[in-house]
Amino acid sequence: MSDISEFGVHTKAELLFPAHLIPSLRELRGEEWKMLVDRVAALPETHPDSLAFVLMMIELDSCLKCNSNNYKFLRGCYLCATQTIQSFKGGDQELLGLYARAQQELSSHLRQDSRPSERMAG
Question: What is the pTM assigned to this prediction?
Answer without folding.
Answer: 0.80
